Every structure is written in structure tokens, then in C-alpha cells.
Inverse folding.
């Protein structure tokens, strides 16, 4: 039986021993894993930690403000890095899922590496958890934050890595979040992938296409908040479909709605959502986002599908 209190006690000792007098940077996206990591390292080394929020332009509506504000409330020194233009430049012209993941990963580590050099920091803390490692090693996908386990030495990016949660699965990470006294908004937060909305824009990732999926995501989240499901989101397709907008036949965007039940993200079940909710989401998406003419619901479990489309 996992004991969160013991885990925290042991982790604090271990982090203190590893870090010594050095400084640490923690890349915090606001998700459960990276926020728990940041809070844990902060408890261990106090002001020797600097949290950074990298704004890659791929976050959900209101997320950058929420994350920076939450870290501030926790008393953690935080730096906001605006890297939107650089991430979009790195993703420009890329349509293959793995190529996009690798471009994201490379830009992510270069941005962090640059911040680490500027801040004269030796360690980077990140919220890698067991499922990330397992799936990357198995070759299911290149998780953006898994390097050493697949033979990439993180020192090529200029620093050492601290991964205090790498033996835990999501439910245990949530227990640690509660143990650390983090707000419910964090401990119960819906999982959201590191490469963010880039995984939910099939085909090329451009600011315009991200804006479409961001709005659709906001609608799906608003309409499904009470379901208590594991992950609820929208995906923008790369192909188009015929529809009618303002009385005219148009060739417009397609959005898939995905709502899944899971505990650890290793397997998942498509939620049997009520038709009334689906209709409302479809009506809102097609009326609030001008380019979208069609909404679909994904009824596939994991396996054989994955939770994300990319
Ligand atoms: P899949 O799509 O593989 O996702 O079934 C399993 C869980 O992991 C999340 N996910 C990621 N998280 N970086 C992350 O931090 C990634 O590259 C990544 N890919 C998938 C996904 O949202 C789900 O919770």
C-alpha cells in the first residue's frame, strides 16, 4: 500500500542530498505531475528552486495566468518565459505525429537549458511519472520528457535531471499532492499532456489551428466538468468535410470529442456520455467556432486506441 507521507519524507531527504548547495529549475506546466514535483522540490530546497512556466502558445484558455498565479500563491519563485513564436517556428511545416513530438521536445529542452544557463542552475526538476517512462521505452510514443531511459544523455542540453515522481502512477501522484496540501484544483486536475494542444491539432500546428482546438477544448471541458471522467477534450482533424454555414455550402473543419474513463492512463474506456451532452457540445462548437462544420464522438477504448490522437 502506497504511503504518501513516507514518500514525501524520503523524497525530501533524497532531493536535499542530491541537490546539495546547487540551484534547481523546475519546468511547471500546471499539470498535477509537474506541480507536485515543483512543490516537493520547493519544500526540500526552498528558495534554491526557481519554477519556470514556458508559454509555448499551446496551452488551454487562461492556463498561463492560472499556473503563474498558483505558483505565486504557493510562495514559489517563478519566471514566465514567452516562447510562443519559437515553438510555432519549430513546429512549422511538420505534420507527422512523432516528428512534431520530437520538435516539441527539442524546443522544450533548449528553452529550459537556456534558462538554466542564465540562472546558473545545475539541476532541472521535472514531473516524469512511471507511465511516461513505460510507454516511451515500449516505443508507444516519444513522451516529451523522457530522455535518459531511452539513451539520450540530458547533459547534452546542459544540466542534470531530477525526477522525484518517476516510480509513481497518477493516483499516487494525486495522493502526494493532497499530502503536500496543494489546492484541489491541482490535486484533482485533469491530466493534460506536456506537448499540450500540439497533440490535438492533427497535421500542421499553426497559431490559427491551435486557437480552434483551444476554443473547442474549452467548450468540451465546460460541458463535461460534472462527469468526473479522467480526460475530456477536443481534437482538430487535418482533413475537411462539407457543411452549410450561413446558408452556403462550405468545406470546413472537423472536431472529434473524446471523453475517457481511466485511473492510470495505461488503459482507458470511452465514456458512455449522454446524447444530450454531446448534442449541446456539437451545437456550441459549430456555432461558436466559425470554421467547424462537423463534430464526431470517439467511442474507442485504449487499447487499441491511445487516449490522445498523436
Ligand atoms: P496516450 O495518448 O498515450 O496518453 O494514451 C496517456 C496519457 O499521457 C498523456 N500524454 C502525454 N503526457 N507528454 C505528457 O506529458 C506526452 O508526450 C504525452 N502523450 C500523452 C495523455 O494525455 C494521457 O493522459
Amino acid at each position: 500500500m502506497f504511503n504518501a507521507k513516507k514518500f514525501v519524507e524520503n523524497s525530501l531527504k533524497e532531493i536535499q542530498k542530491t541537490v546539495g548547495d546547487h540551484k534547481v529549475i523546475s519546468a511547471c506546466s500546471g499539470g498535477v505531475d509537474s506541480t507536485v514535483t515543483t512543490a516537493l522540490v520547493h519544500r526540500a530546497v526552498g528558495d534554491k528552486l526557481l519554477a519556470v512556466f514556458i508559454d509555448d502558445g499551446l496551452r488551454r484558455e487562461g492556463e498561463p495566468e492560472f499556473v503563474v498565479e498558483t505558483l505565486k500563491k504557493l510562495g514559489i519563485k517563478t519566471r514566465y518565459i514567452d516562447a510562443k513564436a519559437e515553438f510555432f517556428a519549430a513546429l512549422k511545416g511538420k505534420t507527422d505525429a512523432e516528428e512534431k513530438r520530437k520538435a516539441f521536445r527539442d524546443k522544450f529542452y533548449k528553452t529550459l537549458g537556456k534558462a538554466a544557463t542564465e540562472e546558473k542552475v545545475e539541476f532541472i526538476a521535472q514531473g516524469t511519472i512511471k507511465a511516461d517512462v513505460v510507454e516511451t521505452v515500449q516505443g508507444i510514443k516519444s513522451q516529451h520528457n523522457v530522455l535518459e531511459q531511452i539513451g539520450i544523455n540530458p547533459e547534452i542540453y546542459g544540466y542534470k535531471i531530477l525526477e522525484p515522481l518517476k516510480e509513481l502512477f497518477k493516483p499516487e501522484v494525486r495522493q502526494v499532492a493532497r499530502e503536500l496540501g496543494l489546492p484541489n484544483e491541482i490535486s484533482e486536475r485533469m491530466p493534460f499532456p506536456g506537448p499540450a494542444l500540439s497533440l490535438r491539432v492533427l497535421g500542421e500546428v499553426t497559431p490559427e489551428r491551435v486557437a480552434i482546438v483551444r476554443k473547442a477544448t474549452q467548450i468540451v471541458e465546460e460541458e463535461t466538468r460534472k462527469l468526473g471522467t479522467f480526460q475530456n477534450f477536443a481534437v482538430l482533424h487535418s482533413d475537411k468535410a462539407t457543411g452549410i454555414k450561413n446558408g452556403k455550402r462550405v468545406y470546413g473543419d472537423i472536431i472529434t470529442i473524446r471523453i475517457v474513463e481511466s485511473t492510470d492512463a495505461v488503459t482507458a474506456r470511452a465514456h458512455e456520455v449522454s446524447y444530450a451532452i454531446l448534442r449541446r457540445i456539437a451545437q456550441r462548437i459549430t456555432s461558436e467556432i466559425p470554421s467547424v462544420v462537423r463534430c464526431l464522438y470517439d467511442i474507442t477504448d485504449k487499447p487499441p486506441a491511445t487516449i490522445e490522437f498523436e
Q: What stands out?
A: The pocket of xanthosine-5'-monophosphate is lined by residues 101, 135, 141, 143-144, 191, 193-195, 231, 265, 302, 306-308 (CB under 6 Å). Residues 201-297 form a domain with the GMP Synthetase; Chain A, domain 3 fold (CATH 3.30.300.10). The longest helix spans residues 97-118. The chain has a mean pLDDT of 92.
